[in-house]
Structures are given as C-alpha cells and as structure tokens.
Amino acid sequence: MKFPEFLDKASNKIKLDLNSYKENRVKRRINNLMKKHNIKDYKSCLNKLGSNSDFQEAFLEHMTINTSEFFRNPKNYEYLQNKIFPELFNKKNKVKIWSAAASNGCEAYTLAIILNELGIKANRYQIKATDIDPSILAEAKTGKYKDNALKKVPKEILNKYFTKKDDHYQLDSKIMSRVQFSRLDLLKDRYDNNLDLILCRNVFIYFTKEVKDQLTTKLSNSLVNDGILFLGNTEYLLKPDQFNLNKVYNSFYQKKQ
Ligand SMILES: C[S@@+](CC[C@H](N)C(=O)[O-])C[C@H]1O[C@@H](n2cnc3c(N)ncnc32)[C@H](O)[C@@H]1O
C-alpha cells in the first residue's frame, strides 16, 4: 500500500484529516511509531488501527504534539496583561475568550491567573479551552504540572497559585474552575462566534499553508469587530489584510471594524 492511500484510510479510522498536516512531518512520525510498535508495513498498521483502540489512541497522541507551558513567550503575556486586557475590560462587561489548541491547559490557566492578578471578577469573562486530543484534555482537568511546564512562571505567582506535591505542582482550584475544557477539531468542527480574544498558538506550524489560511479565515470570522487573535511566536501572518486583520504587536492581530 502506498503512503497516500494509507493516509486517507488512517484519517478515516482516527477521524482526523491527516492530509491537512505537513506531509514530511506526518510521514516521519508515522514511520517512527510503526518502528516502535514493530509494525512492518502500512497495511498492518491500518489493521491494527482498526482492531486495537489502545493503538488508535497512541497513534492520535503521537500525531499531535502536546508541548505547552505557563507564560510561554512572556513578553506577549505582558502585553496581554498591560494593554489588551485593560482595554478589553474597559470596553466590555463580559469578555469571551477561546484557547483553541489548548493542550494541557497551561495557556488557558495562564489567562485565568493574569485576570485574577488584574482583579477582574470571574463573572466578567468566560474562558473556553479546546483540543483535538481527549487524553491531553483529561490531563488539563487535573491541574497537575511538572517543573518543565513551570519554568517561566514568576516565583511569586508560583507560590501564590501552586502547591508542591511529591513530584508535581497542583494548581489552585479557584483558577481551575475558571476554564471550561471540551474537545474540538479545528479542521472540521464549527467555531463559536462573537469572541473577543482567540489564542491559537503553536498549532499552525503543523498544517499546510492552504489549511492554515482556511483556519485563519474561520478564526477571524469568529471574532467580534476589534477582537484579538493571539498566535504563537513563530506564526506571524504575512498578509493580515487578507483575513480582515491588522497587526497590533508581535503575535497579536486585531479584526478590522
Ligand atoms: C504544541 S501544542 C500547543 C499548545 C498551546 N497552544 C501552546 O502554545 O503552548 C499543539 C496542540 O494542538 C492540538 N491539535 C493538533 N491538531 C489539532 C486539530 N486539528 N484541532 C484541534 N487541536 C489540534 C494538539 O493536540 C496539541 O495539543
């Protein structure tokens, strides 16, 4: 069986369109996984995907890179704290926020911590956090983190919001209650609308240019006029105009009126 045929059939089995991701990377990762599980060819891999739900789960996990950390790219979070949030909450009573490839929740919880630090009451905002991978969402809901996710957390924030347990840190339950997690596939599911702030960070890098453009259009359509799209550090838009967006700072784009 040739790779393109395998990819179509595997996509059907795991219900995720692998053709939307950069081909070289997908191929490399599938070959690695097959080696690890002693699978000799694509046909056997497909059979295993069809008959073994544990393998199906491992396959999906392997295709989605879940790396995340609190306060990832701190300068951008400073901008959010000092500029974006004050302006947003001055303008609106209730603010709708979406962390669109939320992974283990570090990003969404960072927002909840910053809003708490700004003294903004929880009834003035909603933070939705979604991801394609159910196992990482389950992890996010535990609020347990290892050192590597906490390297950029300022000391006083770490002491205030985390409790050291044996081999991990436990996030404060009040902060955890401010984020709602659910599963969403950015490729095929419907997005909410009238959002004030969308974080879609460090996931575009895995998609083809064509898919990235389609998703940027969908994200822009989901924002209110003036709403903000916050991307990953390396994921700038060459022509924000094309998506009805203006660049405002580093990885921040604002929807035009
Ligand atoms: C590298 S993590 C980024 C986490 C976080 N946004 C950050 O920047 O720290 C990428 C996440 O994108 C998710 N992902 C990949 N494809 C997706 C899709 N089609 N729909 C939703 N999430 C997806 C993965 O499961 C993974 O958790």
Describe the protein in words.
It is a single chain. With 257 residues, this protein is an alpha/beta fold. It folds into two domains: 3-63, no CATH class; 74-255, Vaccinia Virus protein VP39 (Rossmann fold). The protein contains ten helices and ten strands. It has a seven-stranded mixed beta sheet. The chain has a three-stranded antiparallel beta sheet with strand order 3-5-4. The model has no long low-confidence stretch (mean pLDDT 95). S-adenosylmethionine binds next to helix 6. Pfam families: CheR, CheR_N. Keywords: Methyltransferase, S-adenosyl-L-methionine, Transferase.
Topology:
Layout: H1 3-14, H2 23-36, H3 42-51, H4 53-63, H5 74-91, E1 95-99, H6 106-117, E2 125-131, H7 134-140, E3 144-145, H8 155-161, E4 162-164, E5 169-171, H9 173-176, E6 179-183, E7 195-200, H10 209-222, E8 223-231, E9 245-249, E10 252-255
Parallel strand pairs: 1-2, 1-7, 2-6, 7-8
Antiparallel strand pairs: 3-5, 4-5, 8-10, 9-10
Helix pairs in contact: 1-3, 3-4
Bound molecules: S-adenosylmethionine.
* Distance between the amino and carboxyl termini: 51 Å
**Which cofactors or ions or other ligands sit in this model?**
S-adenosylmethionine
Shape: globular
How many domains comprise the coordinates?
2
What class do helices, strands and sheet pairing give? Answer: alpha/beta
Q: Which fold name fills CATH's third level, the topology of the largest domain? A: Rossmann fold
What fraction, in percent, of the residue positions are helical? 40-55%
Which range does the strand content fall in?
15-25%
CATH architecture of the largest domain: 3-Layer(aba) Sandwich
SSE string: HHHHHEHEHEHEEHEEHEEE
Low-pLDDT parts are none
The number of helical elements comes to 10
Organism: Orenia marismortui
Protein name: Chemotaxis protein methyltransferase CheR
InterPro entries: Bact_Chemotaxis_MeTrfase (IPR050903), CheR_C (IPR022642), CheR_MeTrfase (IPR000780), CheR_N (IPR022641), SAM-dependent_MTases_sf (IPR029063)
GO molecular function: S-adenosylmethionine-dependent methyltransferase activity
